[in-house]
């Protein structure tokens, strides 16, 4: 890692950080309202229009760790790292189909979380609690990874010690507490403008300095061939199935994360969601360009055992200090937006669906908001402690497991939006089966990979563990529903109406 302090870059980084800090605290005055309710603090009063929602959901999907991890995957393993591109392409029609419907029913019934929806749809308290627990457990390592990304940026500046990370955390916690979801929404706008400038400059200027993209791909191919095991810029036939299932499973899972639901439910209408599903592919173009930076780092001769540091080191090496500081600030600020949204989403789940269900069934709006603010602080503290005292590799491994877990919400949430055929108790049993299957597969791989080798018919099929886990979930849920209905077991009450699922037209 860089050993000497880059003073100019650090100065620019701090100036940009100060700008977004002021924006975060100032957000409390934007669309001014009483933040002593979960609707206002946790969902900004469901008031965001097309543009703000575009930036906010983009901030959810394209995080600091995305900017670091996607190129790092190409830097370390070559072509398989590109799986993020097709998974995002699959994502947008999926969003168009599912999310406006979700917004409609949640808006009509005042639901704040996915667990709220499941509780109302299936009348199952245990299933609602399971959904909430899954969301929180899957999100916590995701928050930690944003702080890992921030630490990589700070290290590239040549700053030693953990105090800058702690300082960034304190600022994040303060403006999230005071401004709620409005803070990351405002900062997302600044962050994305900076990110586009950074990426366009990086994919144009650095390859030109290195002799063009022909040289970049040639040098990257040669460097990957020297790795152990050897890698390639071209996907190998043996990787096709794992690549496809990873893309498909990731697309299924991403809309089920609590922070995605929070961004969606903060929108002012289902039409806004549809527009965003049509506009968000612009981010996919950005992601494809970001991914290429992994090959550019190889061609530039960046040598590091920690692949996550490849892009920050590339910027420090190839750009003037002032612009390197700007680029690193864009990545660092990119950690603040999703970390804030994720902590708010987790706090909403805890307050509404764990504390509210298990301990204190009836709370006033002010009590709910206060509880959520405090929980949001504790969640960020937990993520910070994890990053400071536990190897960052564990956060990566747990996030892989979290991706497998979150996919198990699909039968209850996505299927529940289109049919109530499933029995609530059967869905709970299916959730247990899916969680157990996915966790067992990940543990069998020592949490080093989410790709599991299935031995079927004398062949080995390498697949993303979330897919067979989800199939087990659906199988148990289906069989359980048939059996429970055959024995005449009573279903929970569905408080939603058929008309709730008829989405508005644009």
How does this structure look, described?
The protein is an all-alpha fold. The chain has a single domain (7-389), classed as Sodium/glucose cotransporter (Up-down Bundle), CATH 1.20.1730. The chain has helices spanning 7-26, 38-43, 50-61, 64-77, 84-109, 114-122, 125-156, 163-179, 182-210, 213-225, 240-254, 258-265, 270-279, 281-299, 310-318, 321-358, 365-389, 392-406, 410-418, 424-444, 466-486; strands at 451-456, 459-464. Strands 1-2 form a two-stranded antiparallel ribbon. Helix 1 (7-26) runs parallel beside helix 8 (163-179), helix 1 (7-26) packs parallel to helix 16 (321-358) and helix 12 (258-265) crosses helix 16. The longest helix has 38 residues, at 321-358. The N and C termini lie far apart (51 Å). 56% of the residues are buried. The mean pLDDT is 88.
What are the SSEs and their pairings?
Blueprint: H1 7-26, H2 38-43, H3 50-61, H4 64-77, H5 84-109, H6 114-122, H7 125-156, H8 163-179, H9 182-210, H10 213-225, H11 240-254, H12 258-265, H13 270-279, H14 281-299, H15 310-318, H16 321-358, H17 365-389, H18 392-406, H19 410-418, H20 424-444, E1 451-456, E2 459-464, H21 466-486
Antiparallel strand pairs: 1-2
Helix pairs in contact: 1-8, 1-9, 1-16, 3-9, 3-12, 3-13, 3-16, 4-14, 4-16, 5-11, 5-13, 5-14, 6-7, 7-16, 7-17, 7-18, 8-17, 9-14, 9-16, 10-14, 12-16, 14-15, 15-16, 16-17, 18-20, 20-21
């Amino acid at each position: 890692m860089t050993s000497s302090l880059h003073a100019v870059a650090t100065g620019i980084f701090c100036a940009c950080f100060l700008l977004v800090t002021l924006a975060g605290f100032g957000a409390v005055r934007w669309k001014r309202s009483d933040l002593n309710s979960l609707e206002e603090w946790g969902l900004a009063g469901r008031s965001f229009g097309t543009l703000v929602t575009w930036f906010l959901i983009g901030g959810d999907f394209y995080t600091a760790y995305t900017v670091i991890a996607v190129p790092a995957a190409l830097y370390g393993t070559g072509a398989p790292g590109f799986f993020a591109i097709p998974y995002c392409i699959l994502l947008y029609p999926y969003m168009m189909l599912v999310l406006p419907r979700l917004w409609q029913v949640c808006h009509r019934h005042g639901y704040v979380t996915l667990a709220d929806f499941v509780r109302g749809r299936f009348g199952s308290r245990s299933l609602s609690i399971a959904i909430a627990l899954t969301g929180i457990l899957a999100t916590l390592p995701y928050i930690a990874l944003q702080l890992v990304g921030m630490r990589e940026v700070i290290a590239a500046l040549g700053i030693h010690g953990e105090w800058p990370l702690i300082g960034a955390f304190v600022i994040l916690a303060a403006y999230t507490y005071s401004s709620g979801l409005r803070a990351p929404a405002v900062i997302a706008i600044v962050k994305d403008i900076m990110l586009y400038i950074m990426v366009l400059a990086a994919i144009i200027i650095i390859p030109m300095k290195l002799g063009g993209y022909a040289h970049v791909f040639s040098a990257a191919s040669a460097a990957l061939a020297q790795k152990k095991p050897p890698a390639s810029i071209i996907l190998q036939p043996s990787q096709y199935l794992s690549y496809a299932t990873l893309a498909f499973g990731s697309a299924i899972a991403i809309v089920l994360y609590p922070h995605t639901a929070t961004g969606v439910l903060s929108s002012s209408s289902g039409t806004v969601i549809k527009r965003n599903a049509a506009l968000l592919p612009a981010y996919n173009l950005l992601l494809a360009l970001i991914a290429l930076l992994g090959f550019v780092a190889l061609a530039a001769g960046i040598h590091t055992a920690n692949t996550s540091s490849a892009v920050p080191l590339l910027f420090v090496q190839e750009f003037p200090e002032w612009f390197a500081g700007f680029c690193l600030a864009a990545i660092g600020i990119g950690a603040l937006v999703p970390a804030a949204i994720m902590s708010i989403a987790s706090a909403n789940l805890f307050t509404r669906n764990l504390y509210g269900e298990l301990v204190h069934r009836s709370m006033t709006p002010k009590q709910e908001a206060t509880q959520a603010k405090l929980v949001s602080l504790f969640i960020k503290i937990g993520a910070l402690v994890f990053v400071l005292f536990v190897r960052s590799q564990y956060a990566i491994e747990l996030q892989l497991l979290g991706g497998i877990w979150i996919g198990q919400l699909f039968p209850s949430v996505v299927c529940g939006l289109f049919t109530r055929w499933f029995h609530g108790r059967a869905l709970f049993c299916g959730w247990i089966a899916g969680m157990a299957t996915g966790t067992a597969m990940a543990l069998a791989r020592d949490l080093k990979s989410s790709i599991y080798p299935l031995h079927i018919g004398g062949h080995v099929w390498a697949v993303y563990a979330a897919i067979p886990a989800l199939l087990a979930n659906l199988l148990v849920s289906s069989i359980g529903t048939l059996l429970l209905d055959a024995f005449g077991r009573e279903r929970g009450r569905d408080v939603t109406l058929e008309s709730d699922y008829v989405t508005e037209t644009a």
